[in-house]
## 1
Amino acid sequence: MTMTDEPITFDDHVASAKAMLQDLRGRQITQFPAYQQRPGEKLVRLTLLWQHSLLYRIVDVASASLRMFEAGRLVPGCTLARSVYESVAHLYYLHKKMAAFIVSPDIPAIANLVIRGSWGSKDESTEPEAIQVLTAINHLGKAYPGSEDEYFHLCEYAHPNFKGALGTYASMEIPSMNVEFGLNPQGLPMVAFGLGGLELILTVATEIFRDLQDLEQDFKKAVYENAEGKYPD
């Protein structure tokens, strides 16, 4: 920092997150074009359905997380931010597999991935088994160093461990053991403990979604060229 630089404030971090959310909102769509039957079209449409559903989820949950941080609500803010990481990890996993498919098309493999990603569940409410969240988080961590560590930090607030309970809701003096309870009696800083992590993952989400949009036409072309007799509509 130079003598003329102003320190980055909490409001600056909030404004940064809001700007990225606005960028992502601008990439949301409200419907697909009319369906035109051809081999591979269902696979293309289901892939884009998964992709854009994830985008809506990211914007929705990240917006709620940001509101919590603005209100000084550390635990719900971090818990929601953790969910954003999981959603962005799935988005990156899809991006990685789409890019690989363009280079080396494998219709059954990409179809299985997309079906599990878009229709999968862990409670057997749908037939395919969902993709493991930690698998996607691991892939994200390799591509974006530090993101996996931040995810596990946020997990501590989503669970009733030290950070998610006593560490946030109580302020204890040692050795007197005098205790003060509250939503954040220690005044833990939102940026250092959660908002900074939300900013990080929104930056990643913006980059990944731009890359996905750049891949879209090449992905469609690869599907159409290889779906004949393998993935009929």
## 2
Amino acid sequence: MTENLFKNILETIDFGGRDIREYSPLVLAYLGDAVYEVFIRTYVVANNNVPVYRLHKYSTNYVKAKAQSDIIHRIVDLLTDEEKDIVRRGRNTKSATIPKNADVTEYKYATGLESLLGYIYLKKDYKRLMELLKMCVGQEYTLE
């Protein structure tokens, strides 16, 4: 399962005890993008036995900025205050570039989502990470 992969990576790599709150939102988004990409590719392959070009097309429906922006708007009420703060910080961070096919506002919200995923990943809260990732593909969760 993807959760074990994430856990094994963080158990293998030494961060030297660095506080995750020291990382910039863009660094969190950088990691969050990779975490999200691995999950989405795994999800798409598990649910579709089709040629690779189709898998890529299905994956882009989840990873493009508009999709991620829509996701964060859909799940925002299910986030804790701490998580909302991480999203806000990610969204408000100045980025050097905007992809050519992305709306600036959508891109900022997508960065917020990726920052959140990167933060939860580094926090090693794998249960919550998997809940959030499942919410991203439409599986509903509520706060306990």
